[in-house]
Write a structure and sequence with these properties.
2 domains, 82% helix, 502 residues, 20 helices, disordered N terminus, 0% strand
Length: 502
């Protein structure tokens, strides 16, 4: 009896998320810095490895794995049923609840793996490529690994242990890279890419299990779990709608305009929106758990929310404004003159990328407050409207689709924030007010840069010109911010926040 009680107390220790105001503020700020730094390091490492693998493997090897990656991504929409986020969001949760969620995630991961394995021959016949079958069979194992470690990762986030997560995920890449390079040199071709993904997934789970220290108990059904399952189902629905919006434009452009137009659109999207999403996702992984801890303290909730919006806008908006002006020489410089047709598409998509920091702010309200059903209802409406916009825009080719994408995002932004903030301590107008300084400063700096490059065309030539233009843009961005009413105060607040990242 004493041993059982001791185990129960030890298990509950891993579920506690109590922190003082100062501790939470420091943890959240440092976590933001750690996550962003980790994301940058992972990007650099994997980018370098892919360059090496590109010299060791054939283009068709990457193409083959890319097809499987798309297939796996479809199954991944239901990877964890969003139950880990339910664990993170709840103000109070017990060992019995988390244990049941662990077993649900584990069994669901096994079911997804079985479903992917069963569907593998069907995809192989659909694509006329028998090699897809064994690749899908191997990568389906990642569903099991992810299911086993999902609740442990959630508990680490709940306790704001983002440094541990970042270190674990980075270390897990190392064996994957070693395996990939070894297999590539030994002539295993596409299997090098396949086993790199598998190794990273498995070693990440092992690292999370060892770092967390929590051990699940026997599964016991409880009525208290039902709200968590409902919460997860709403977030899963959101993922499905986001996936549909993400890939529908590609399908429509490919259908109406052909592969060449789709290639230009895809590259513009990849250069502009994917990097902004790479920044937004890690930031959300810190913001949402932190706000979940503050859900019962409205003043601190609002204060942290505003700081997060300010940081997101201050970092995310300037690069987009700069690239909008410089796209005419940046795209040919980085990709070559053959990609010049991507420039107008690049600029058309820039509007959506520019407002992305505010667009993600709606999720930062509804998820921590346990109201994802509101976001699901809105996303269903927004997805239908966006898809209709894609169809209409397709009449003007890829540019029409890109412009439609940005217009839909811009038109729906204010109503989306109004709906998300209704009944919450956050006022939707405050979101725009908070982001007004970085937004206006970025736009003004972009206008000044445009005038400067028109007056001095040599500033837009080569790598040196690009670096000089970027430096001038940065100075003008900060300068405009300082002269705006209240600009010094908000910039000082931002600098104070950045100091916590060190």
């Amino acid at each position: 009896m004493f041993i059982h009680s001791t185990m129960g107390i030890d298990s509950e220790r891993h579920l506690r998320a109590e922190q003082t105001a100062a501790e939470l503020r420091s943890s959240a700020a440092r976590a933001t810095g750690v996550v962003l730094l980790s994301q940058g390091c992972k990007f650099v490492l994997l980018f370098g490895v892919n360059i090496i693998l590109a010299r060791l493997l054939m283009p068709e090897d990457f193409g083959l794995v890319a097809v499987v990656t798309s297939i796996i991504a479809g199954f991944s929409l239901f990877n964890d049923l969003s139950l880990p986020m339910a664990t993170v969001q709840r103000h109070e949760i017990n060992h019995e609840q988390v244990s049941l969620l662990f077993w649900i995630n584990t069994l669901w991961g096994c079911a997804l793996a079985a479903a992917a394995a069963a569907a593998a021959p069907l995809f192989a016949r659909l694509y006329g490529e028998p090699r897809l079958t064994p690749i899908i069979l191997v990568l389906s194992i990642t569903f099991i690994a992810f299911g086993v470690g999902s609740q442990h990762r959630a508990l680490l986030k709940r306790r704001m242990r983002f440094t541990a997560i970042a270190v674990t995920e980075f270390i897990a890449i190392v064996p994957g890279v070693v395996i990939a390079l070894a297999l590539a040199r030994l002539g295993f071709r596409y299997w090098a890419l396949v086993y790199m993904r598998l190794a990273i997934g498995v070693f990440t789970t092992l690292g999370v299990l060892l770092t967390c220290g929590w051990r699940p108990g026997r599964p016991r059904w409880s009525a208290q779990v039902r709200p968590l399952l409902t919460f997860g189902s709403h977030l899963t629905g959101l993922s499905v709608l986001a996936f549909l919006t993400r890939y529908a434009d590609n399908l429509i452009i490919g259908w109406y305009s052909g592969e060449r137009a789709l290639g230009f659109y895809y590259k513009a999207y990849q250069m502009l929106l994917v990097p902004s999403q790479q920044f937004g996702a890690p930031l959300s992984s810190v913001v949402i758990p932190t706000l979940s801890r503050l859900q019962l303290d409205p003043p601190r909730f609002v204060a942290y929310y505003r700081r997060s919006i300010l940081l997101s806008a201050a970092i995310g908006m300037p690069p987009i404004a700069f690239l909008f002006v410089s796209a005419g020489w940046v795209v040919p410089l980085l990709l070559g003159n053959q990609w010049a047709e991507s420039v107008p598409l690049f600029r058309a998509l820039a509007v959506a990328a520019f407002i992305a920091p505010l667009d993600s702010g709606s999720a930062w309200v509804v998820v921590p407050l346990g109201r994802p059903d509101r976001q699901l209802k809105w996303s269903l409406f927004a997805t239908l409207l966006t898809l209709a916009g894609f169809v209409v825009g397709a009449r003007w080719g890829a540019f029409g689709v890109a412009l439609s994408f940005s217009l839909c995002r811009a038109v729906l932004l204010a109503p989306k924030l109004m709906y998300a903030c209704a009944g919450s301590p956050v006022r939707w107008a405050e979101v725009f007010r908070t982001a007004s300084h970085p937004a206006f400063a970025a736009l003004a700096a972009a206008a000044l840069l445009f005038a400067l490059t028109r007056q001095f065309p040599f500033a837009a030539r080569g790598v040196g010109g690009l670096a000089a233009s970027g430096f001038c843009f940065g100075l003008m961005y900060i300068g405009v911010w300082l002269v705006l009413p209240g600009g010094r105060r908000t910039l000082k607040s931002l600098v104070g926040l950045v100091r916590y990242l060190r």
